[in-house]
Write a structure and sequence with these properties.
The structure holds three protein chains of three kinds.
Chain A (H helix, E strand, L loop, with lengths): L1 H17 L2 H20 L3 H23 L2 H8 L2 H6 L5 H30 L7 H25 L6 H9 L4 H15 L5 H30 L2
Helix pairs in contact in A: 1-6, 2-3, 2-6, 3-6, 3-7, 3-9, 6-7, 6-10, 7-8, 7-9, 7-10, 9-10
Chain B lengths: L29 E11 L2 E12 L2 E7 L5 H9 L6 E7 L11 E4 L11 H12 L5 H14 L15 H10 L8 E5 L7 H16 L3 E5 L10 E5 L7
Parallel strand pairs in B: 3-7, 3-8, 5-6, 6-7
Antiparallel strand pairs in B: 1-2, 1-4
Chain C lengths: L1 H8 L1 H12 L1 H33 L13 H28 L2 H33 L7 H21 L4 H29 L15 H47 L2
Helix pairs in contact in C: 2-3, 3-8, 4-5, 4-7, 4-8, 5-6, 5-8, 6-7
The chains are: A mainly alpha, B alpha/beta, C mainly alpha.
């Protein structure tokens, strides 16, 4: 457990020290949300109806930006080889790295989301629900994203490929993330079941992501 | 064909036991490679290689480019699944992975340029041996840096280091966590004569204290008495 | 335990059975014999189905002539999924049993599956225009088939963007297996999300037999066509690999003088 903890802390330190990544993601999030009213027109009623969808999609795209970095630098400079010699199985190493990715990308984006919601006339009362849904749903982004990041380590044009591979995997998270909020807005209730499914998808990603990513990393370290 | 030559099969590479030892392992280790075959795609890289190395031995793996030195070390480290044959570690508990007993220093230095020299080593020390306390880690890091003459650079961001200094930092890793078997792939790359001598003395001390060192190189390492394994260019299937 | 025993008692029989498929040379001989016949059978069945469709089967009392799209659309949709099954099983064979032909099979099935998926999407949208008044609706069935299409694209792109062929095939196989697990979940989530497409009636008795018979014949014909194309693509891939091996050997000989 100590080793796992040390790896997460080191990844967090490196993320903050290399900087840039978080700023880029947050800035991109802001930009995408800010472009939406320009494209859709400034109708506040329309915007507040579309706000959950816009926020979720913008969040997915922003999180995608930093995904390639999850394994890339450690793979390129040989650190992953040394880490693989340590006491942790590769699956746990992936969990540590995806956790660090979530803490440095997913969580800050989630915390920014209600603020950006103000730009879209999102009802303030639904902000807690938005944050809850996103906190439950975003781990899936990091853990399913780990699969794409691991598969495209040695690929040409890996950024675009990563988006192609990973975005379809985000469909369930997107659908239930949005339905948690739209149910609320339409007063049809049922946010609870959406939140439960959202958590289930994240838990599922927590199992599938490490197994598939570790297999992909193993194949590439040969 | 990979041919193993064993000058003095019976531990003649073992140095006199006078040296004060910081024993890395209590038990006597034998790493035995039996009829190892490793292929890359269809092409066999290592074909039917067998040898033993035991505690207190240094093995220098020599051979031309493409003769399979790196492949052999990576197979020992557990990165490559051999096609057939066995890698056995006697004297070590059955369930322990062989890679848990090994240090691997490959072509890449595994250095994070945004961390300082000491931070780099501290992480690897604490990660590779998670029983160490914070105080033990800093002791070991200090000692390792001193052995490779990097102590004055401890707080320098490692991005500022020269190629030779980076290589020494990578090698210093093997002193941070106690592991009996060292797998060193071309350890002397970009090292000057003095650093090479430092490395040789570190390896000698490790071997003298009952460790095993396996180094792939095409140059003379200057390590005390060592056995040599000559890998020849594999005749490719035509 | 028992199966192990029989394995060791009759090793010869077991080996010859697996070898038939495992050995590329044997596969080339076998598939070379099968291929013409399966192609002819596919052509006959599809022509017969088309004849029934245009000259025998009645128009739908609601849909009129447009119902004829069904005879292409349904088999294509079925093959889109079946081809993924072939890809998945082959990928499993590659990762677990390191079967030499498994990778060839997976690689060959992907573009064919993608083509059938595209055909299903296009015919579906052409059928949708007169039925639903629009070429595309974001209903559950269409969306999940679109995701399947993206997955096929991802498999092809991933393979082509990694130079080391051996590595590319392993990584593609991993992705294919991830897709197997995720497809039902994607499907389930979009089902839950929104649905307009009728539930699959394809081969059940709710379709009148005058329509069901040509549909069945068409489906069998297209399935045979799929397997013929798959065999042909596998043969091409094996030949391509042989050429590559020979070329590499030649380069090797030249470099050694």
């Amino acid at each position: 457990m100590t080793a796992f903890f040390r790896l997460v802390v080191r990844d967090l330190e490196l993320a903050f020290r290399d900087g840039g990544a978080l700023g880029t993601a947050l800035g991109f999030f802001l930009m995408v949300v800010a472009m939406m009213p320009l494209g859709l027109g400034p109708d506040l009623n329309l915007l507040s109806k579309l706000a959950p969808g816009i926020l979720w999609i913008a969040l997915l795209l922003s999180a995608l930006l930093s995904l390639p970095r999850m394994f890339e630098s450690d793979f390129d400079d040989g650190a992953l080889e040394v880490i693989a010699m340590g006491p942790l199985p590769l699956e746990l190493i992936v969990i540590a790295k995806a956790t660090a990715h979530w803490l440095t990308t997913g969580l800050p984006l989630v915390l920014l989301a209600p603020v950006l919601g103000l730009l879209l006339n999102l009802d303030l009362a639904s902000a807690p629900l938005l944050v809850t849904a996103m906190i439950l749903g975003t781990p899936a982004i990091s853990f399913l994203g780990a699969i794409g990041a691991a598969l495209t380590l040695k690929a040409k044009r890996s950024g675009l490929l990563l988006a192609l591979l990973v975005l379809p995997l985000y469909v369930p998270t997107l659908i239930f993330g949005i339905s948690a909020l739209t149910n609320q807005i339409l007063n049809t209730g049922g946010a609870g079941s959406s939140l439960m499914i959202l958590s289930a998808v994240s838990l599922f990603a927590l199992v599938l992501g490490p197994i598939a990513s570790a297999a992909a990393l193993r194949a590439q370290m040969q | 064909m990979a041919a193993a030559s064993h000058p003095g099969q019976e531990f003649c590479g073992k140095p006199p036991l006078l040296i004060l030892s910081t024993r890395t392992s209590e038990t006597f280790l034998i790493l035995s490679i039996e009829n190892l075959c490793v292929t890359r795609g269809e092409r066999p890289i290592i074909d039917g290689l067998s040898f033993n190395v035991g505690s207190g031995e240094a093995l220098v793996v020599m051979g031309a480019n493409g003769s399979g030195k790196t492949t052999l070390l990576r197979a020992l480290a557990g990165f490559i699944q051999p096609k057939s044959g066995a890698i056995l570690l006697d004297g070590h508990s059955e369930d322990a992975r062989i890679s848990d007993a090994c240090h691997y220093v490959g072509h890449l230095n595994a250095i994070k340029t945004s961390q300082t020299v000491a931070e780099n080593l501290s992480f690897y020390a604490g990660f590779l041996d998670d029983t160490l306390s914070q105080a033990e880690i800093s002791d070991r890091v200090e000692d390792a840096l001193a052995r490779f003459a990097l102590d004055r650079l401890a707080s320098v961001p490692s991005g500022y280091l020269s190629a030779g200094q980076k290589r020494r930092l990578a090698l210093a890793r093997v002193l941070c966590a106690a592991r009996p078997i060292w797998l060193l792939d071309e350890p002397t790359t970009s090292l000057d004569q003095e650093s090479t001598t430092q490395l040789a003395s570190v390896i000698n001390a490790h071997v003298a204290s009952g460790g095993v060192a396996i180094a792939a190189t095409h140059l003379d390492l200057g390590v005390g008495p060592a056995r040599t394994l000559q890998l020849d260019q594999k005749a490719r299937s035509a | 335990m028992a199966s192990h025993m029989t394995d060791s008692i009759q090793p010869e029989k077991r080996q010859s059975l697996t070898q038939k498929f495992a050995n590329p040379t044997r596969f080339m001989a076998l598939s070379g014999q099968v291929l013409p016949w399966s192609l002819i059978a596919a052509a006959c069945l599809i022509s017969y189905a088309l004849y029934l469709v245009f000259f025998v089967a009645p128009d739908d009392y609601q849909q009129g002539q447009t119902v004829k799209i069904m005879y292409i659309h349904v088999p294509a949709a079925w093959l889109a999924m079946m081809a993924y099954g072939v890809v998945a099983v082959s990928s499993f064979g590659l990762l677990v049993f390191r079967h030499p032909l498994a990778d060839v099979s997976a690689k060959a099935a992907v573009p064919i599956g993608a083509a059938f998926t595209l055909i299903a999407l296009i015919t579906g949208s052409l059928w949708g225009k007169p039925m639903w008044g629009t070429y595309w609706v974001w209903d559950a069935r269409l969306t999940s088939v679109l995701m399947l299409f993206f997955l096929y694209l991802g498999l092809m792109t991933l393979r082509s963007s990694i130079e080391d062929e051996l590595l590319a095939s392993r990584l593609t196989a991993i992705l294919a297996l991830v897709g197997v697990i995720l497809l039902p979940i994607i499907k389930f989530s979009v089902d839950w999300w929104n649905t307009l497409h009728q539930p699959s009636t394809g081969f059940t008795s709710s379709v009148h037999s005058s329509m069901r018979t040509p549909l069945l014949i068409s489906a069998v014909g297209f399935t045979l066509l799929f397997f013929s194309m798959h065999l042909k693509a596998m043969r091409n891939e094996i030949l391509r690999r042989r050429v590559k091996t020979l070329t590499l050997a030649e380069v090797d000989r030249q470099s050694r003088g």
